[in-house]
Amino acid sequence: MKRAIAIADRAALGSLKLLVALNVLFFLSFLVVALLAAGKVQAEIPVRTGADTLSLPQTHDSVRSVIIAAG
Predict the structure, then answer these.
(1) Rounded to an integer, what distance in angstroms lies between the CA atom of residue 30 and that of residue 26?
(2) Domain spans of the chain?
(3) N or C: which end of the chain has fewer CB within 10 A?
């Protein structure tokens, strides 16, 4: 019985080491992908062309103001 326990103990130790190695590899691959994605991101402010809705005259006629804003 002691021999079976020793074999099971060695197998468990090996499988735990393999599991740790796989977790480390997955974590490293996640870091690499995250760094590559962060390098490609460009924080640019888009240039907007269009009417400034705050400078348009506001009227009580909601349909007319929507048409003016869409204009």
Answers:
(1) 6
(2) 1-43
(3) N
